[in-house]
Amino acid sequence: MDLSAADHRIPLSDGNSIPIIGLGTYSDPKLTPKGVCATSVKAAIDVGYRHIDGAYVYRNEHEVGEAIREKIAEGVVRREDIFYCGKLWCTALDPDHVRPSLEKTLKLLQLDYVDLYIIELPMAFKPGDLLYPRDENGKYIYHKTNLCATWEALEACKDAGLVKSLGVSNFNRRQLELILNKPGLKYKPVSNQVECHPYFIQTKLLKFCRQHDIVIVGYSPLGTSRDPSWVNLSSPPLLKDPLLNSLGKKYNKTAAQVALRFNVQRGVVVIPKSFNPERIKDNFQIFDFSLTEEEMKNVEALNKNVRFVELRMWSDHPEYPFHDEY
Ligand code: A2P
């Protein structure tokens, strides 16, 4: 694979392609001033990112769209140069809600299609305007989950031209097989977005996905923001890791760049989130060095098999994906 800053798309099974690095855009809305997301997406496009990962539930999709449209208007990129991934939230997994959800995303973005639309989590919540429905005791209200029915509604969105490629996120092997073995399947999932970094390397899921031509998109590739309200902090900070730092010294790179390069070199798409202009730029500088085979093995050996993102609050959902080994 000869990837460069100018050309770093990898093929998807449906004939489309995905840039191997994208900008993550999740940031706690309460802590993020208005406009910071848009400024960051614009900065990312200026330094060469062509892939933006977002979601309705992040509540900043309008800013992502504004940034993309501004860069198109300026002539920096064309729409077809940009790859935007949006996500179907848990309250909209009923087939009737799928297309309206995607249309809501398109309206916020003010774009007429997304490049990839994925089921964000394989767990349905009670449909409605509340994104995190809870009862009077604070317990989450779940909903009957039929992933195959959701998938068929997504297939119809692709046929209608609202989305180019379809994928999933946080699916385990059993849930992927549910879709892959669905009678009458029209489009296979092209990708599965899951946590993936040197402390959680996803060996088994990666092997399974490779066998089925499913690209792994690695979220939290830098080890998350370590926000204790949703991150399991039992593992130490990834970017403080001594091996990642010593490899960084060798190549005149940072631990973050080494962590990203590790995934890219094994064909895993990375979507590091940063709203800091310097770090946005740094995280993209991963095409001018490579790790040796032995270094790749040594980084793999850092695996702790512990997730930063466990989503334990939903572990009693019948489709909670992380009880299975992979
Ligand atoms: P910031 O937005 O201030 O740069 P992940 O993508 O694994 O979820 O990590 C995102 C977190 O890592 C964010 O808190 C982000 O903060 C921080 N971050 C992003 N890039 C770097 C970097 N190159 N070095 C250190 N921290 C980074």
Polypeptide structure, described:
The protein has 326 residues and is α/β, with parallel strands linked by helices. The chain has a single domain (17-314), classed as Alpha-Beta Barrel (TIM Barrel). It has helices spanning 36-47, 61-73, 95-109, 147-159, 173-180, 203-211, 242-251, 255-265, 277-284, 293-300, and strands at residues 9-11, 17-19, 23-24, 51-53, 83-88, 114-119, 163-169, 191-195, 215-219, 269-270. An 8-stranded parallel β-sheet has the order 3-4-5-6-7-8-9-10. Strand 7 (163-169), helix 5 (173-180) and strand 8 form a beta-alpha-beta unit. The relative contact order is 0.15. Bound molecules: adenosine-2'-5'-diphosphate. The site of adenosine-2'-5'-diphosphate has 18 residues, from helix 9.
List key phrases describing it.
TIM Barrel; two-stranded antiparallel sheet; eight-stranded parallel beta sheet; 33% helix; 10 strands; binds adenosine-2'-5'-diphosphate; alpha/beta; globular; 326 residues; single chain
